[in-house]
Design goal:
By secondary structure, the chain is α/β, with parallel strands linked by helices. 30% of the residues lie in helices and 22% in strands. The chain has a single domain, classed as TIM Barrel (Alpha-Beta Barrel). A ten-stranded mixed β-sheet has the order 1-2-3-4-7-8-9-10-11-12. A two-stranded antiparallel sheet has the order 5-6. The structure holds iron/sulfur cluster. Iron/sulfur cluster (SF4) binds next to loops. Keywords: 4Fe-4S, Cytoplasm, Iron, Iron-sulfur, Metal-binding, Methyltransferase, rRNA processing, S-adenosyl-L-methionine, Transferase.
Length: 308
C-alpha cells in the first residue's frame, strides 16, 4: 500500500482493489544500451520488457501482453514457448510505469510504447485495450495515442474490435505465421482496407521481417507494393534476429537498404529497424525462455528450402 494515504482511503483500497506488483528480477544491458527487464509475476512466471533508447531522443518501451504466445510464428523465439497465460491490465501497464521509474533519469522521458514484447496482444484483447487506454488517458500515463502502437500477427475479428474501441496505432506482422491459415492475407488486407476507409485519419504500420532468400528479392518488393496498394500505411522493415533452433537467416543490412529504396521509389513511407539488443536476446522475436517444452517448428515449404 502506498505511503501517505489516510486510514479510510487505505481501507477502501484494500477492500476493493487488488494491489499486485511486478517484481524486478533482473536488468540486462546489451552492448548498444538496450535494456531488458525481467519481471517476476505473483505466480513466479517471468516476463520480459525491453527499453530501447535512440540517438534521436526517442526512448521506446516494448511491453509484453502474455507469458509465452500461442501463435508460433516461425521467426520468433517467444512463439516456441506456447501460451502460458494472459497478463492482466495492471501487469501490462506496470511495465511502462517501471520503465519510466527506472530509466527516465538516464534516458530522458519514455516517449513511445510498443506492444511487441512477449505475446500476441490481440489474443488478450480485453486487457490490451484497457491497458492502452490507461496509457493514453489524462489521468493515466498521458502518452499520445500516436505514440502507443499495438502490434498483431493478424487476428482479423480482434483487429476490427481494436480499431473500433481504441485510438492507438495498429501494426501488423503477417508472414510464416500459422494464424494465416485461419485468416489469410487477402482477408486481412481486405479488412484493413475496409476498416481504414471508415477512419480517414488512421494508418496502419506493416512490419515486414526480412529473411534472406525468402522474402527479400526485387520481385518480393514489387509484390509487397501491390499487396498494400490502397491501404493508408507505413512499412517497417525489420531485420531478423536469429535464436537457437531458428531456421532462417537475416537479410544483410545493405540488401535491406536496397529493398527499402525500391519501396520508397514507389511512393511508400518506409522505416528500417535494424537489430537492437540482439547480443542479449533483447531484440525483436528473441524474448522469453521456452524451456524443455516447445511448440514444434513447422515444415518449411519446398520453394523456400533453398534459402535455409
Ligand atoms: S511474433 Fe508475436 S505473435 Fe508471433 S509468436 Fe512471437 S510474440 Fe507471438
Amino acid at each position: 500500500m502506498p505511503e501517505g494515504l489516510n486510514k479510510d482511503l487505505r481501507k477502501m483500497i484494500s477492500d476493493h482493489a487488488d494491489l499486485k506488483a511486478l517484481t524486478v528480477k533482473d536488468i540486462i544491458t546489451a552492448s548498444d544500451g538496450t535494456r531488458k527487464i525481467l519481471f517476476s509475476l505473483e505466480d513466479a512466471s517471468v516476463i520480459e520488457t525491453v527499453v530501447i533508447p535512440s540517438a534521436r531522443g526517442r526512448t521506446t518501451v516494448c511491453v509484453s501482453s502474455q507469458v509465452g504466445c500461442a501463435m508460433n510464428c516461425q521467426f520468433c523465439f517467444t512463439g516456441r514457448m506456447g501460451l502460458r497465460k494472459h497478463l492482466s491490465t495492471a501487469e501490462i501497464v506496470e511495465q511502462a510505469v517501471f520503465a519510466r521509474k527506472l530509466f527516465s533519469d538516464e534516458f530522458g522521458s519514455i516517449t513511445n510504447v510498443v506492444f511487441m514484447g512477449m505475446g500476441e496482444p490481440l489474443h488478450n484483447v480485453d486487457n490490451v485495450i484497457k491497458a492502452s487506454s490507461i496509457m493514453v488517458d489524462e489521468q493515466g500515463l498521458q502518452f499520445s495515442p500516436r505514440k502507443v502502437t499495438v502490434s498483431t500477427s493478424g487476428l482479423v475479428p480482434e483487429i476490427k474490435r481494436f480499431l473500433n474501441e481504441s485510438n492507438c496505432d495498429l501494426a501488423v506482422r503477417n508472414w510464416i505465421m500459422p494464424i494465416n491459415r485461419r485468416y489469410n492475407l487477402s482477408t486481412l488486407l481486405g479488412t484493413l482496407r475496409e476498416e481504414l476507409r471508415l477512419r480517414p485519419k488512421s494508418i496502419v504500420l506493416f512490419e515486414y521481417v526480412m529473411l534472406a532468400g525468402v522474402n527479400d528479392s526485387t520481385d518480393d518488393a514489387k509484390r509487397l507494393m501491390e499487396l498494400v496498394h490502397g491501404i493508408p500505411c507505413k512499412i517497417n522493415l525489420i531485420s531478423f534476429n536469429p535464436h537457437s533452433g531458428s531456421q532462417f537467416k537475416p537479410t544483410p543490412d545493405e540488401s535491406i537498404i536496397e529493398f527499402r529504396n525500391m519501396l520508397i521509389q514507389s511512393g511508400l513511407t518506409v522505416m528500417v529497424r535494424l537489430s537492437r539488443g540482439d547480443d542479449q536476446m533483447a531484440a525483436c522475436g528473441q524474448l522469453g525462455a521456452p524451456g524443455d517444452y516447445q511448440l514444434p517448428l513447422l515444415r518449411v515449404p519446398e520453394k523456400f528450402q533453398v534459402a535455409l
